[in-house]
């Protein structure tokens, strides 16, 4: 790893350790650092609303548990779809780094199809709840905060997935046309994995802790 | 670039990726199983959050490749995130106070 870092920055820049800074202290492209900084700020956004949800739930006497097994199975399948799409994303980055442009675009399309499937399954869940009378302002169980936090949290996440689908489509097109290189695919991959990561917290906090048992 | 070491790294990292993928699927299965156990809410929350943090770390380290970057990148990003999220919890005990007021 040390030799890898040295290759990129070059000994001529005169750093001995990775803490000595210089022109390229992280040894990654600027756009990759930019995406990492965006991800940290977005992680803070999601943390804030997850904590707000937990705060609201803790301060409420009775919180509804409206998810029957069918919903839990649906959400579990969504989790599997998202985790699998992360693997296809890794394969896209790998193909791009090896210089196989159309193969990389193919894996990108597979990844974004996972995102589309995730959205379809989640919207199915949403429409089911809306049909039961859940809105952001009220629901049949008498705890209106449930709808506000549920739609707010999952809606923001769904927006991220949808933006990711569009982003990956643009990167796939640009990769085939030779406009984007392997770095661009990798940066889009960071975003996609992050959307996957956030779901790993929403799934247990929103769905599993509100499973209707018995 | 050393072509041989580069491709060896790619091969070994692909094996790691599939191991991580299976681990994530397994941990998800454990979480779903836990959801149907009659556990106390606080214990359940602690277990689920513990498992989710493991899953998140695996995604960041392997899928997002942070493990293979310079360590300075992780040291720049992660402590700042932990600090800010930690600061948000400062107000959290207030939720219990509000609950007590409502119960009364």
Q: Which short descriptors sum up this protein?
A:
heterodimer, A: 214 residues, mainly alpha, disordered N terminus, B: 104 residues, 4 helices
Provide the fold topology.
The complex is a heterodimer of chains A (214) and B (104).
Chain A: H1 2-9, H2 30-58, H3 69-97, H4 101-131, H5 145-176, H6 182-207
Chain B: H1 3-35, H2 41-63, H3 71-88, H4 93-103
Helix pairs in contact in B: 1-2
Give a verbal description of the structure.
- The complex is a heterodimer of chains A (214) and B (104).
- Chain A is an all-alpha fold and 214 residues long.
- Chain A contains 6 helices and no strands.
- Chain A has helices at 2-9, 30-58, 69-97, 101-131, 145-176, 182-207.
- In chain A, helix 3 (69-97) packs antiparallel against helix 6 (182-207).
- Chain A is globular and about 55 Å long.
- In chain A, 38% of the residues are buried.
- The model of chain A is unreliable at 1-7 and 10-14 (pLDDT under 50).
- With 104 residues, chain B is mainly α.
- Chain B contains 4 helices and no strands.
- The longest helix of chain B is centred in the first third of the chain and has 33 residues, at 3-35.
- The chains are: A mainly alpha (214), B mainly alpha (104).
- The interface between A and B is large, with 55 and 52 residues.
Helical content class of chain A:
over 70%
Give me the secondary-structure category of chain B: mainly alpha
Please give the count of helices of chain A: 6
Class based on secondary structure composition and strand pairing of chain A: mainly alpha
Q: Uncertain spans of chain B, ≥5 residues at pLDDT below 50?
A: none
Strand and helix order of chain A: HHHHHH
Tell me, briefly, the overall form of chain A.
globular
| Terminus-to-terminus distance of chain B | 69 Å
Name the chain pair with the biggest interface and residue counts per chain. A-B, 55 and 52 residues
Q: Compute the average pLDDT of chain A.
A: 91
Strand element count of chain A: 0
Strand fraction of chain A equals: under 5%
Share of helical residues of chain B: over 70%
Report the uncertain regions of chain A.
1-7, 10-14
């Amino acid at each position: 790893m040390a030799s890898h870092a040295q290759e990129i920055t070059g000994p001529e820049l005169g750093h001995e350790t990775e803490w000595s800074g210089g022109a390229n202290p992280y040894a990654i492209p600027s756009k990759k650092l930019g995406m990492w900084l965006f991800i940290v700020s977005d992680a803070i956004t999601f943390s804030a609303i997850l904590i707000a949800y937990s705060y609201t739930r803790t301060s409420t006497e009775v919180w509804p548990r409206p998810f029957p097994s069918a919903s839990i199975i649906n959400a579990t399948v969504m989790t599997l779809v998202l985790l699998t799409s992360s693997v296809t994303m890794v394969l896209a980055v790998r193909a791009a780094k090896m210089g196989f442009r159309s193969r990389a675009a193919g894996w990108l399309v597979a990844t974004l199809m996972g995102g589309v499937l995730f959205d379809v399954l989640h919207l199915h869940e949403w429409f089911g709840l809306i049909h039961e009378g859940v809105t952001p302002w009220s629901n049949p169980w008498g705890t209106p905060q449930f709808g506000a936090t549920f739609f707010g949290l999952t809606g923001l996440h769904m927006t991220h997935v949808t933006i990711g689908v569009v982003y990956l489509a643009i990167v796939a097109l640009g990769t085939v046309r030779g406009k984007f290189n392997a770095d661009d695919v990798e940066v889009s991959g960071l975003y996609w994995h992050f959307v996957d990561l956030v779901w790993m917290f929403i799934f247990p906090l929103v769905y599993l802790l509100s499973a209707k048992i018995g | 670039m050393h072509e041989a070491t580069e491709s060896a790294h790619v091969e070994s990292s692909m094996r790691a990726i599939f191991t991580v993928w299976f681990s994530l699927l397994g941990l998800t299965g454990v979480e779903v199983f836990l959801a149907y156990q009659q556990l106390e809410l606080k214990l359940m929350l602690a277990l689920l959050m513990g498992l989710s943090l493991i899953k998140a770390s695996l995604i960041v380290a392997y899928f997002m490749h942070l493990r293979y970057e310079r360590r300075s990148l992780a040291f720049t990003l992660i402590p700042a995130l932990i600090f800010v999220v930690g600061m948000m919890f400062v107000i959290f005990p207030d939720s219990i106070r509000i609950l007590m007021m409502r119960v009364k």
